[in-house]
Design brief:
alpha/beta
Length: 361
């Protein structure tokens, strides 16, 4: 009997040690980059310190400078966003956020709801951008089960244990920056914001503010309805938002359709493509990649517009004197310094017609 207990204890100890090593190594060998740093930075924020969490695809992190919003209002906003983020992820990211935060407001960027999910499923990166940047937990497993079809060609196992996907990335272990990701808990200097100083001009769309409605893909409407019901049941305050971009008439009418749905559940919908003049956006100067994402100057304008909307429609406590937010004050100082350099770079590029080169995939 003693021998059996001894073996049991040894096996248990081995499993515990194995997991203690496996988890940090798994986090470290995940492919590095902005998305990984953004999620790791979210987990590093103090418990119940965020006022606003913005969820969505790539328009989120280059359009809205959280340090600027903080420095001018004392509102702590953080983006939980990934490239081409599938709408089905939004509800699960709210649940993930609620493990450590109780934000006053969730903001959802809605551009991806115009795209059929089947096309997004063809590229695993649009799913892994979410699942491979979440901490290991039972909720992460539920997220994978919701986002990854059972017949996925890679199999769900490589999503559950993503080290199977990234096991060849051992070079990450030699990067000092990745040692901060041992526990997926590393502060983001600019609070998830990505500053872009490229210029890619595009004519202003002539369909901004257009009327008419066009139905969105059926599966995305189901995702939106599920999210709205979840938010209502959970008594969460939310704002649905569309960032300004080179929108088409078809997309603009889809946003009108979405607005009608969110309004039926009592939630506001802010389509910034209806407010080009108020934002002051200049499509020929304020975009980094020809109408898809803003550069730093465009982001400054979009953040200012969102800031005005938030202060007019919500009441937030100004926390700039709260000692827990010293890293946010540092982020604001860093953003001001980086912004000054970016403005000059963007001015020079416009003057020299030094425009961004978009590589074909």
């Amino acid at each position: 009997m003693k021998e059996k207990w001894k073996i049991t204890i040894q096996i248990t100890a081995f499993i515990a040690i194995f997991l203690a090593v496996l988890l940090p190594v798994s986090y470290m060998v995940r492919t590095n980059g902005d998305v990984k740093d953004r999620f790791s930075g979210f987990y590093a924020e103090g418990e119940d310190t965020l006022d606003v969490i913005m969820i969505g695809s790539s328009p989120v992190f280059p359009y809205y400078a959280a340090p600027k919003l903080w420095g001018e209002t004392g509102i702590a906003m953080y983006p939980l966003s990934s490239n081409m983020q599938r709408p089905i992820a939004m509800r699960y990211l709210v649940e993930e956020a609620e493990k450590t935060q109780s934000p006053q407001l969730y903001i959802f960027e809605m551009r991806m709801y115009t795209i059929e999910d089947q096309g997004l499923l063809e590229n695993m990166a649009y799913t892994r951008g979410v699942t491979d940047n979440m901490k290991y937990s039972p909720h992460r497993i539920r997220t994978i089960q919701a986002m990854v079809p059972e017949d996925d060609k890679e199999g769900r196992l490589t999503y559950y244990l993503d080290i199977m996907k990234y096991h060849t990335n051992w070079k990450m272990l030699a990067l000092p920056s990745e040692w901060g990701n041992m526990f997926y808990h590393k502060k983001s200097p600019l609070k998830g914001y990505t500053l872009k100083d490229e210029v890619g001009p595009q004519p202003m769309p002539d369909c901004g503010g257009a009327e008419g409605k066009r139905q969105i893909p059926r599966e995305q409407e189901e995702c939106l309805t599920d999210l709205l019901l979840f938010l209502q049941k959970s008594d969460k305050e939310a704002l649905f938002l569309v960032s300004p971009y080179g929108v088409s008439l078809e997309e603009q009418q889809m946003f009108n359709y979405m607005e009608e749905i969110t309004a039926s559940y009592g939630y506001p919908f802010l389509n910034m493509n209806n407010y080009y003049e108020e934002i002051g956006i200049i499509f020929e100067e304020d975009f980094a990649d020809y109408g898809s994402h803003t550069n730093a100057v465009g982001a400054e304008k979009c953040t200012a517009f969102l800031e005005q909307y938030l202060t007019e429609h919500y009441v937030f406590e100004d926390k700039r004197q709260d000692g827990r937010y010293e890293s946010w004050n540092e982020a604001y100082t860093l953003w001001q310094e980086d912004m000054e350099i970016a403005r000059e770079t963007i001015r020079e590029r416009i003057a020299n017609e030094d425009y961004a080169v978009i590589e074909e995939e």
